[in-house]
Amino acid sequence: MRMVLERGERRLLLIELVYPLLLLAMGVYGGLMQTLMRAGIVQRDPFLGPNYYQGLTLHGVFNAIVFTTFFAVAFGNALVPYALGKRLPMRWAWVSALLMVVGSLMAAITIFAGGASVLYTFYPPLKAHPAFYLGLVLLVVGSWVAFFNWIPLYRHWRRENPASKTPLAVVGIFATFIVWLIATAAVAVEILFLLLPWSLGWTQEVNVMLARTLFWFFGHPLVYFWLLPAYVMYYTMLPRLAGGKLYSDAAGRLVFMLFIIFSIPVGTHHQYMDPAIGSNWKLLHAFFTFAVALPSLITAFTVAASLEYAGRLRGARGLFDWLWKQPYFSREQWLFSYLMAGLIIFIFGGISGIINASYSMNVAVHNTSWIPGHFHMTVAGPVLLAFLGMSLYLIAQVAGKEVRFRGLAVAAPWTWLVGLLLFSFAMSRGGLLGMPRRTNLGVTYLNPSSPFFREEWVLWADLAVVGGVIMTLAIVLYLLTFLGTLLSRQATEPALAFPLAEAYHDEPVRALANFRPWIVAALILIAIAYTPVIWDVLRSTYENAPPYLPSSPLPVQPAGQ
Ligand code: HAS
Question: Is 375 a catalytic residue?
Answer without folding.
Answer: yes
